[in-house]
Amino acid sequence: QVGLMESGGGLVQPGGSLRLSCKVSRSIFSINAMGWYRQAPGKQRDWIASITTRGTTRYKDSVKGRFTISRDNTENMLFLQMNSLQPEDTAVYYCNGINVYNGDPLLHTWGQGTQVTVSS
C-alpha cells in the first residue's frame, strides 16, 4: 500500500517560514523522483518543486530562490523549506512521485495535504 502523509503546514505572516514534511512509502520513495504540489483556492493543483533520487532539483519560477526541496533517503522523507512566504503561497500542499520532465504526478492517489495560510 502506498502512503503519502504531509505535515508541517500552518498560519504564518508574510515574510515568514515553514518547513513541510512528507512521509512516503519506501516502495515509491526509493525508485522515483519526488515532488511538491500545491492547490490554491479555485485553482488546479500544480507542481512547484521536484528532486530526483540523486538530489537534482527543479523549481517553478514562482518559488525559485525562496523554497528548497530536500529528501532523506534513509527515512523515506521529503521536505520543503519555505522562506519569504507571501499571501499567494496560500494553498494546500501535497507530495507525490513526479515525472520531472512534465511535472505530472506518478500516483493517482494523494495524501490529505497540509494547509499553508500566509496572512497578516
What does it look like?
This protein is mainly β and 120 residues long. The protein contains 1 helix and 10 strands; from the N terminus they run βββαβββββββ. The strands form 2 sheets. The chain has a 6-stranded mixed sheet with strand order 2-10-9-4-5-6, with no helix packed on it. It has a 4-stranded antiparallel sheet with strand order 1-3-8-7. The model has no long low-confidence stretch (mean pLDDT 93).
**Secondary structure: number of strands:** 10
**What characteristic shape results from the CA principal axes?**
globular
Beta content comes to 35-45%
Strand order of the largest sheet: 2-10-9-4-5-6
Let me know the average pLDDT.
Answer: 93
Whole-angstrom Rg: 13 Å
Assembly state here? single chain
Strand and helix map with partners:
Elements: E1 4-7, E2 10-12, E3 18-24, H1 26-29, E4 34-39, E5 46-51, E6 57-59, E7 67-72, E8 77-82, E9 91-97, E10 114-118
Parallel strand pairs: 2-10
Antiparallel strand pairs: 1-3, 3-8, 4-5, 4-9, 5-6, 7-8, 9-10
